[in-house]
Specification:
single chain, 5 helices, elongated
Length: 190
Amino acid sequence: AGYLGWVQLPGGLQLLAHPVVLVGSGCMVAVEFFADKVPGLDSLWDMVHTLIRIPAGAALAAGTLGADSASMGLLAALMGGSLAATSHVAKATGRAAINTSPEPFTNIGTSLLEDAAVPLGLWLAVTSPWVFAGLLVVAVVGSICLTRLCWRYVRTLLSRLTRIFSGQPDPGVQPAFQHRKRPLEEPPHV
């Protein structure tokens, strides 16, 4: 959008409109598009991108809002990093839960939905910023709820796997047949 002149980028972000940066980011988007569709690989991809997405969100926010003062840049970086962390953790935990499904269609459908949401969100941010801000608040609250729900699910799954591999019985499952040892009866006294 900045390269085509649709949006005026702040001075600190003019580099993002350079053709070399656009070609590189386009290649990365293409790789991500296919990596996100493969169950298991998408979770590995999310683990690697934990080190990329959160600092990038902080840096972009600081570059956008921090040109006037250092304190505004720091506040923007904290908010941008927090927003990037919230959305990234929600995506990563949601993907971990979706990957437990044995069929690949849920994973592909979720990835395609995410891919469609990005241009829609960018269009809303440019054309209707207040609508975008409202939807962003709803998305952040939803991400926090989804993260809590998925984390609870992943924790339960990990504890059950730990019990299975350690040989401990699962407290939620009762055995179908319980063998009780009865004391030997003594013969009657005559």
